[in-house]
Predict the 3D structure of the following.
Amino acid sequence: MLESDGKLKPARKQVKAGDVEKKETPQTGKEYNIWYNKWAGGDREDSYSNKTKSQTRCNIKKDQGLTRANATGIRYCCLFFARGCCPYGWECEYLHMLPDESWALPDSSKDCFARDKFVDYRDDMGGVGSFSRQNRTLYVGRIKETGPGPETEEIVIRHFKEWGSIEKIRVLQYRSVAFVTYVSELSAQFAKEAMACQSLDNDEILNVRWATEDPNPTSKVQEQDRLEEVGRKAIQERMDPRIVDAMRAVRALEDGDVLDDEGPEIVDVSHEQQQSRDNEDMEEGQRDAKRRRIEPPEPEERPQAMGLLSADTVEGIKYFAEIRKRHELSAPALVKQKAPPKPHATTMALADYGSDDED
């Protein structure tokens, strides 16, 4: 409920404790199926005798409001609020409002009521649903047709648009079936619980289920394109535009292309701003030229490798040769002593000979 200034008021209690009388479905089978939460082996599920009209219905204009979830940050809706039978009102721990199309749930494996999804749908396409496919279409059965197709379509739109924006609707005339596609999957989840076992204008009991995948190839291609576009937009919203520009520049350099003016972000620059930027570029160029004149010249090139010796080895040899040369020039001359001359070979031979004769 809205206040006079447009703000939400605290949510009201939809029912009082004990007002809703729980009526169990009459047993027509012999085995209880815990997956479908019903007795199996009896009458068909689609039989009117097995369906009971819901005793409550949510009225968004009167029932929506602030709860404790608005203060605690809970992002899930109240399941009983969707069914019109929440007795807690503003004391509820979940939201009492429609899920917004821009919501991003904390866990993609849960629906808007914080219920866990499954890998596959149930055989009757009921229950919470599957996390393997984004389903935005509801199957609505047991519609009482009292007029032509356009009239029935108008009735279905009037009742189902209360829960969110409708993308398209298709009515199968004379078959009492309609397919309602919402813009957001969260809206479809809420509408499925809000319209289950409800009636339109002719006091019927609706059979609302998840729709199976459309076998039309054109519809499959359109859905695939839509999912790709949604994913592309989500990635672009989370990416920094500077990163996108850098990636485009790197890709252009790798391909050898010239970057064009198209990009994720186009900036409108006036003539004065462009002239100011040109002046700044000229001043920066002049400062670079002065800096090059002031800076010392670059060092000489290192010697190239010669043969088996590397450039570092050649540089080291030259360094030690220069040190040796300086050391020889500064040190005093050393006096070299001559070694005694060796005796002549003929003299030694004569001396040896004479000594032998004396003996």
